[in-house]
Design brief:
The complex is a heterodimer of chains A (122) and B (107). Chain A is mainly beta and 122 residues long. Chain A is built from no helices and 11 strands. In chain B, strands 2, 4, 5, 6, 9, 10 and 11 form a 7-stranded mixed β-sheet that branches. The interface between A and B is medium-sized, with 22 and 25 residues.
Chain lengths: 122, 107
């Protein structure tokens, strides 16, 4: 069974940093693109970042470029999102998600974690 | 960046109705369009990808169509479990973008 479990969320002051983790199991992690998607309270979905299986291809939403860093550790079946210079509008549930098809350079996601809440407030 | 719009933003429907949601891309995305369903407090669920391919396990009352810039999600014979918010997403070029969502409510 595919499982994605996020951790690392919490309350952070504006300007602070946080590192989200996503532990993957039930599939061959190093075969799949992985994404982060976020959702502010009461708002819609926002795609944040994608990383290829070999970490050579990395993409970010314009709203987070320069502040967020996606990475992965295939040996530990883990995905990460380093979030720096946090702002109030970064407050959201952050989901990690797996690409639908292995080795596909682009495409939708089919499995999602339960989400990690990040709250940015003084 | 490609921008996605959806209409309507919300709709009210009855059990058994046929519901149609439209998604439009700001430029051609071929058929790189996915639809997701999200219920309150839950992660989204992939319904349709490649504009018209039904994800495994999704009921056949859901269907998708379109290519280029205009796409449609249709729900035939609406069931109680279908009341949710629906999002389209373009997967043609990065940054991927979601539409703003369409909330389907009970009439």
């Amino acid at each position: 069974e595919v499982q994605l479990v996020e951790s690392g969320g919490g309350l952070v002051k504006p300007g602070g940093s946080l590192r989200l983790s996503c532990a993957a199991s039930g599939f061959t992690f190093n075969n799949y693109n992985m994404d982060w998607v976020r959702q502010a309270p009461g708002k819609g979905l926002e795609w944040v970042s994608s990383i290829s299986p070999d970490s050579l291809y990395i993409y970010y939403a314009d709203s987070v470029k320069g502040r967020f860093t996606i990475s992965r550790d295939n040996a530990k079946n883990s995905l990460f999102l380093q979030i720096n210079t946090l702002r109030a509008d970064d407050t959201a549930v952050y989901y990690c998600a797996r690409a639908l098809e292995p080795a596909a350079p682009r495409g939708p996601v089919d499995y999602w974690g339960q989400g990690a809440l990040v709250t940015v407030s003084s | 960046a490609i921008r996605m719009t959806q209409s309507p933003s919300s709709l009210s429907a009855s059990i058994g109705d046929r519901v149609t949601i439209t998604c439009r891309a700001s430029q051609s995305i071929s058929n790189y369009l996915a639809w997701y369903q999200q219920k309150p407090g839950k992660a989204p669920k992939l319904l349709i990808y490649a504009a018209s391919t039904l994800q495994s396990g999704v009921p056949s009352r859901f269907s998708g169509s379109g290519s280029g810039t205009d796409f449609t999600l249709t729900i035939n014979r609406l069931q109680s479990e279908d009341f949710a918010t629906y999002y389209c997403q373009q997967c043609y070029s990065y940054p991927f973008a979601f539409g703003p969502g369409t909330q389907v409510e009970i009439k």
